[in-house]
Amino acid sequence: MGFIGSGIMARSHMREMIQRDLAQVVAVCEPSVDAYAATVDLFTRSGVTPPANEPDWRRFVDAYGDRLDAVFIVTPHALHFEQASACLEAGLDVLLEKPMVMNAEEATALISTRDRTGRLLVVSFQGSLSPQVRTASRMLRSGELGTILGIDAVVWQDWAQGTAGTWRQDVRQSGGGFLFDTGAHMLNTVADLAGEGFSEVAAWLENDGSPVDTRAVIMGRLGSGALVTMHACGSAIPSCDSDIRVFCSGAIVRTGIWGERLELQRAGTKMRRVRPEGPSHVWERFASVRAGHEPNPSPPEVGLRMARLWDAIRASATERGAAVAIPADLEATAA
Q: Less CB within 10 Å around the terminal CB: N or C of the chain?
């Protein structure tokens, strides 16, 4: 396999792949001399031959398109659409870092490319790929927990301080601030658990002096009438955590935006932990899907669903929280 991008997040994935022998990384595309040096150091210290580097991503695709099985794209958000499209066109299966693309228009076009090329495209949302969220989603869809009445979600991190001066606060590269970066996991996991589209959304984004948003509040209504609240605070004290609760007529489900836990409470009982089984690393799940062992739990339709939600959030925030309706026919295409 290959990596387009070998920054901090990419190297975190590489480290686990090396330790668990999940894949052979033979080539990377990394224009930063320092980032590639850190990649070489990671592999060398692990006793593994470092991958070759082609700094230009277009030349990377040309050179390795017929030599790799798949590629993991971990680059600034604005590059995702063009890079993923090129890799699919080159015959590569793709694991694409979140958020999938910048907007619904790009999401729709990428789905068309996936369909035309017949290649596999998995969006690297840890929540949708986690056994915890997959188990919770199955329980919610089965009806055993009753009707979903409401969903409450919160994510917080000292994001504004930690990303100051980086591409993550350059809207041309990032497409947004905390809500579209770490908060993208919240938007996606909430939508995954809901299992249906939003009918209307109201949102407020605050920059607090930063070039992009660092705090956000979203209120929404699902097509079924269930109510949703989401709160993102990227100016928190040094920390990074989350909490999601799904209130059903027969139970309460608790998880996190990355699927880091799963708890269930029924009437007359206390909250208890549910321990699901299944692949836990995103590449391990990708490999399982690629081998035909399971359906794709995070296809580009997931990215389209989140893109439509993000587009509505931006439109509402521009109008100071005015409710924005999402046509049912649009949501149906992202289901």
A: C
H or E segment and range at residue 141? helix 131-142
Residues pairing with 245 in the sheet: 152, 254
Q: Please identify every stretch of the chain with a pLDDT value under 70, giving residue numbers as ranges.
A: 329-335
Full-model pTM: 0.94
Question: Hey, what are 16's tokens?
Answer: 């686990």
DSSP state of 267: T
Q: Please check whether residue 71 is in contact with residue 94, taking contact to mean a CB–CB distance below 8 angstroms.
A: yes
Q: Where are the domains of the chain?
A: 2-125, 128-278+298-333
**pLDDT for the residue 334:** 47
CATH label, 2-125, candidates 3.40.920.10, 3.40.50.720, 3.30.43.10, 3.20.20.70: 3.40.50.720
pLDDT for 330: 54
Using the CB atoms, write b or e for 1-12: b if 16+ within 10 Å.
bbbbbbbeebbe
CA–CA gap between residue 71 and residue 13 (Å, rounded): 13
CATH class (in words) of the domain with range 128-278+298-333: alpha beta
In the 3-class helix/strand/coil scheme, how is 273-287 assigned residue by residue?
A: ECCCCCCCCHHHHHH
What dihedral do alpha carbons 65, 70, 74, 76 form, nearest 10°?
A: 40
Tell me, what's the pLDDT at 21? 86
- The whole-angstrom separation of Cα 96 and Cα 82 is 12
Phi-psi region for residue 264, left (φ > 0), alpha (ψ -120 to 50) or beta? Answer: beta
Three-point CA angle 324, 330, 332, nearest 5°: 125
